[in-house]
Amino acid sequence: MRTIAKKTVVDAVAGLCMEANRYLPADVLESFARAKAAETSPAARAIFEQLEENAALAGETGMPLCQDCGLGVFFVEVGEDVRIDGGGLRAAINEGMVKGYQDGFLRKSTCDPFTRANIGDNSPAIVHFDLVPGDGLTITMMAKGGGSENMSRVMMLAPAQGWAGIREFVIRRVAESGSNPCPPILVGVGIGGNFELAAINSKKALLRPVDDVHPEAGVAAMEADLLASINRLGIGPMGLGGATTCLGVKIKVAPCHLASLPLAVNIQCHSSRHKEVTL
Q1: Each residue of 24-76: pLDDT tens digit?
Q2: Distance CA 25, CA 22 (A)
Q3: What's the pTM?
Q4: Strand ranges (E), the chain
Q5: What is d(CA 176, CA 136) in angstroms, rounded to the nearest whole number?
């Protein structure tokens, strides 16, 4: 049995929160450059230049990439042979998230759903655990803002609707979202499972690199089809028109009940902020 000190987890999570909010992943920046080069719209190219400048300034100054520093969402793979010394793992992650948002001067966004009073420290952290063999601990932090999350949906389709129904729902969801999620967006799609698993998988799908191709040819073809169809909508960067509404579509599939076809669409803004650490 391997033991990890609670403080090690707290400090690592605090660092994840600050780094995720300040530094865009390289694959996202590279997708900006590719899309800018392909754009014919002057307004669209100008938006990409501003996004690149914003990312550079955030990295140089330590300021957040966006004023909406999001809720702290964590995907945790915890080994069966690891324990946390000094407290529980969930509590350590929450403490680290609070520390990171405080020390990094990141906006705290959690509030009471009825009174709307701000909680004050961005807690509680939203944590999803996967128990895996071994004694490792991998924590992935995603800073998920409100604008893109508000455009996300879960739908229980009838099995007979199949791929045609899935395709129609995803494209319509993006079209109805318009400029609200601050495009160019990334689209995570969870297919199968059940109501909650489809939603979780749609968010997990967003952690894949932008240029990653799904290993299953059929699913890869679905992703390519959706990406092309979404970009034909012409919403463009920040809703000002152009060839690039979406940078990538990522699908995660799971077996489902024979009587249902769960579908979740999780939309991510251009500021796709996530960071991973293995302890």
Answers
A1: 999 999 999 999 999 999 999 999 999 999 999 999 999 999 999 999 999 99
A2: 10
A3: 0.95
A4: 2-5, 71-79, 82-85, 126-132, 137-144, 153-157, 185-193, 246-256, 261-268, 273-278
A5: 42
